[in-house]
Design goal:
This protein is of the alpha/beta class and 407 residues long. It contains 15 helices and 13 strands. It is 39% helix and 14% strand. This is Cysteine desulfurase-like protein.
Length: 407
């Protein structure tokens, strides 16, 4: 496989500082074109959206371009892309809006594998409506989220099934389509947390069976902004709480206040960066006429293959260290690993590595239910290393050597 990581890294200005950023699951560094797009937008005359004058028209064009870019990223429709400040905020919007029609005795299904952003909004909405919360459990031995259990969890009163496309603890990737098929057969909607998965594998929301799919741009080289994607017709039937004079059109009715036009420009630039990855990494340019959607899929496919090689090296190195215990995960996974080092708290391990310029996270990373179920939360959770397409073999080896040298 052709993958010139040095050329890829050259597009990320922040990497010149020399830190080993093995913290992509918490947020990646911004690609250079994203930085340029944000700064360039702030330097131009851009007003609030208005058809009356050019700066106002520019704002509308920026929003439309960002919707089209995210649609190409995940295989959705531009008219179904809703933007917001974070995946958490957007999931609350969806949960509260859907819950308006719930009645006592209705049911929602959540998973203990998920980030709390795809758990608590649904639990709280259910409590407010008098609905019942049902829990899908992960297998503690394999790290998998067995899809078959959903046949027992989903029933005629199920309104929503919320499930992650990839665990932000172990990278485990549940069989979302199988889960979605069971949910849809019962008439339930499916809300998929794609925050961790989108950065690492090509996404097609229709193939996943996702009625709603949420993603955060700062996990895939972009700015701190998020989007939730659904079919425009799905949004049409929903009425969120909103200001009276604000737009009642879809998708604008779900976006409170004036958007950040500079960050939306950065979102478009981030998608373009992913689409350019094959050529950036030393491959042949895309054929004339190739759609951006096809280029994005190709870019993420190339990145996934490269990341898988680094993950294999990382896992082998951790397995060879008798002082390291790795959290289990199935073969189908994103390049994220959680572990603990004997004799150290996770915070101590992360702090020791941080002093050497190696950026990893410790704690529960908001995977509250996972670490509660494993009994690790009260003792500090775990240490997480997450690989992204700008990481190198040298950085993986640097982490492994630092783990061993610290004892």
């Amino acid at each position: 496989m052709t993958y010139d990581v040095a050329r890829v890294r050259a597009t990320y200005p922040a990497l010149a500082e020399g830190f080993a950023h093995l913290d992509g699951a918490a947020g990646t560094q911004a690609a250079g074109p994203v930085v340029d797009a944000v700064a360039g937008t702030l330097r131009r005359a851009v007003s609030n959206r208005s058809p009356a004058f050019e700066p106002g028209r520019r704002a509308g064009e920026i929003v439309a371009a960002a919707r089209a870019a995210v649609a190409d990223l995940v295989g959705g429709e531009p008219g179904g892309v809703v933007f917001g400040p974070s995946a958490t905020a957007l999931t609350y919007v969806v949960a509260r809006t859907l819950a308006q029609s719930w009645r006592p005795g209705d049911e929602v299904v959540v998973s203990r594998l998920d980030h709390d952003a795809n758990v608590r909004p649904w639990v709280q909405a259910a409590e407010a409506a008098g609905a019942i919360v049902r829990w899908a459990e992960f297998d503690p031995d394999s790290g998998d989220l067995p899809a078959k259990q959903y046949a027992e969890l989903v029933g005629p009163r199920t309104r929503v099934v919320a499930v992650t496309a990839a665990s932000n603890v172990t990278g485990a990737m549940p069989q979302v389509r199988e889960i979605a098929d069971l949910a849809h057969a019962a008439g339930a909607l499916v809300h998929v947390d794609g925050v961790h998965a989108t950065a690492h594998v090509p996404t097609d929301v229709r193939r996943l069976g996702a009625d709603f799919y949420v993603t955060s741009a700062y996990k895939w080289s972009g700015p701190h902004l998020a989007a939730v994607i659904a079919e425009p017709a799905r949004w049409e039937g929903l009425r969120p709480a909103k200001l009276i004079p604000s737009s009642d059109a879809v998708p604008e009715r779900f976006e409170s206040g004036t958007p950040s036009f500079e960050l939306l420009a950065g979102v478009t630039a981030a998608v373009e960066h992913l689409a350019a990855l094959p050529e950036l990494a030393g491959g042949a340019p895309a054929a004339a006429g190739t759609t951006r959607r096809d280029r994005v899929v190709a870019g993420l496919t190339v990145a996934a293959a490269y990341e898988a090689e680094l993950l294999e090296r990382l896992l082998a190195g951790l397995a060879a260290d008798p002082a390291v215990t790795v959290q289990p995960a199935p073969a189908q996974r994103c390049p994220t690993v959680s572990f603990r080092v004997r004799g150290e708290s996770p915070a101590e391990t992360a702090g020791r590595l941080g002093e050497q310029g190696i950026c990893v996270f410790s704690g529960d990373y908001y995977a509250y239910e996972y670490f509660t179920a494993t009994g690790l939360r009260d003792s500090g959770g775990a240490v997480r290393a997450s690989i992204y397409h700008y990481n190198t073999v040298g950085e993986v080896d640097r982490l492994l050597a630092a783990l061993e040298a610290g004892r």
